[in-house]
């Protein structure tokens, strides 16, 4: 397991926000967690909604906890409706910290990034841009 440095986490946040501004995204919240699920870096842009931080952390925490990007979790829920009780249980067990929609991206062997504020696809694209800028490998699912 690779340790995620504060410098790398900061690069991820800054590059994700830069991508958001370049692509006209709504104001975002960006959370970077280390491999242990601890918040390593975070930013909430002016104008981002009041629950965006919790959603961003939930996306990152869900990706990290389940070992896949949250796009894969969303796909599982959509393709296998019988799994909805399972995901409801996961949500309850994790005290609501698992958000199974795109925008939670694993940083291979180092942690996860969660972004909330725009569409899930745009959130995920910004997360991947941040991870790439830090010269790490991301997996959105």
Description:
- This protein is an alpha+beta fold and 141 residues long.
- It contains five helices and five strands; from the N terminus they run αββαααββαβ.
- The protein has helices spanning 6-22, 52-66, 70-79, 84-93, 120-133, and strands at residues 29-34, 39-44, 104-107, 111-116, 138-139.
- A five-stranded antiparallel β-sheet has the order 2-1-4-3-5.
- The two termini are 19 Å apart.
Provide tags for this entry.
single chain; 141 residues; alpha+beta; 5-stranded antiparallel β-sheet
Structure at a glance:
The protein is built from 5 helices and 5 strands, in the order H-E-E-H-H-H-E-E-H-E. It has a 5-stranded antiparallel β-sheet with strand order 2-1-4-3-5.
Average pLDDT confidence is: 93
Choose one word for the global shape.
globular
* Quantity of strands, as a count: 5
Q: How many alpha or pi helices?
A: 5
Largest sheet: 5 strands, antiparallel
Helix percentage: 40-55%
Any idea what the radius of gyration is?
A: 14 Å
Q: Assess the beta-strand content as a share of residues.
A: 15-25%
Placed side by side, the strands forming the largest sheet appear as 2-1-4-3-5
Q: Roughly how many Å apart are the termini?
A: 19 Å
Topology, please?
Blueprint: H1 6-22, E1 29-34, E2 39-44, H2 52-66, H3 70-79, H4 84-93, E3 104-107, E4 111-116, H5 120-133, E5 138-139
Helix pairs in contact: 1-5
